[in-house]
Design brief:
This is Hydroxyisourate hydrolase. By secondary structure, the protein is an alpha+beta fold. Helices cover 38% and strands 18% of the residues. The protein has helices at 3-13, 15-19, 23-40, 53-64, 68-109, 115-119, 210-213, and strands at 134-135, 138-140, 145-146, 151-157, 175-182, 202-208, 222-228, 237-238, 241-244, 247-250. The strands form three sheets. The protein has a four-stranded mixed beta sheet with strand order 3-2-9-10, covered by helices on one side. A four-stranded antiparallel beta sheet has the order 5-4-6-7, with no helix packed on it. Strands 1-8 form a two-stranded parallel sheet. Helix 3 runs parallel beside helix 4. The chain is elongated.
Length: 254
């Protein structure tokens, strides 16, 4: 997300707090945030959307009394809320942009002859990929930054059963290695599969070595299982991981 857009979103999310802040409250917030940072080692994180400056100050004072391990988890959860809100805004922006492009294309189509009309033959063009069909990235929401140097493993199901069973009974030997890499400084994985136009349909598992990345965290590793159907083999599958020491989430990106 561009820095200018992040700044604009952040300012909008804090608009209620800014509009309700007096000079004395701003000073008290600054003083308490300094005390908070000295105690916990990071700035006070809170989902500020719709909250007044007074409400934020009350929450800061209350959370200041927490044990560091408890506060770390709360801060990670608050950061997750902010991340999810901004992802929703980003997707909404892209959807509006795509809708505008679609309308322009439809209107333009009335004036520009299509390849089929010019040649008299239906087009059978297949999109050519410039990247692997399955990709990922990792965001450390407790730090608000990409997670670099995390080992990522991609496998595909080739067991005796059509699909892996819930609970994993009889799944031994069913997962077949497809590729692995480590995330770069942007938290993005290297090439996990070959660059092919049509990905093989089936059930895949992507695993992240979160235990090595954060030895004091709750998860020794995280695995995400997903299915690519025959009708989806030309699509791109981006499977990100949003992680903190005590929580994680994922979604299908593009």
């Amino acid at each position: 997300i561009p820095l200018r857009r992040r700044f604009r979103w952040s300012k909008g999310e804090q608009s209620t707090a800014i509009s309700t802040a007096s000079t004395s409250i701003l000073q008290e917030l600054a003083d308490w945030n300094a005390r908070y940072r000295q105690k916990f080692g990071f700035i006070f994180l809170i989902f500020a959307s719709g909250r007044s400056s007074g409400e934020i100050l009350v929450e800061l004072k209350k959370r200041y009394e927490n044990r560091p391990i408890v506060e770390f988890e709360i801060a990670a959860q608050e950061q997750m809320k902010v991340t999810e809100l901004r992802l929703a805004k980003l997707f909404a922006t892209r959807t509006r942009s795509a809708a505008t492009e679609d309308r322009v294309s439809i209107i333009g189509g009335h004036f520009t002859p299509t390849p089929e009309a010019s040649s008299g033959k239906p087009s059978q063009e297949v999109p050519t990929r410039t990247r692997p069909p399955i990709t990922t990235h990792i965001l450390d929401v407790s730090r608000g930054s990409p997670a670099a140097g995390v080992e990522v493993l991609l496998e595909m199901w080739h067991g005796a059963q059509p699909r892996p069973s819930f609970g994993g009974r009889g799944d031994a030997g069913g997962w077949v290695y497809q590729g692995s890499s480590k995330t770069n400084t942007d938290g993005r994985s290297g090439q996990l599969t070959s660059i092919v136009d049509a990905v093989k349909p089936g059930i895949y598992r992507i695993s992240f070595n979160t235990g090595e990345y954060n030895p004091s965290g709750f998860f020794p590793y995280v695995s995400i299982v997903f299915e690519i159907r025959e009708s989806q083999k030309l699509e791109h599958f981006h499977v990100p991981l949003l992680v903190s020491p005590f929580s994680f989430s994922t979604y299908r990106g593009s």
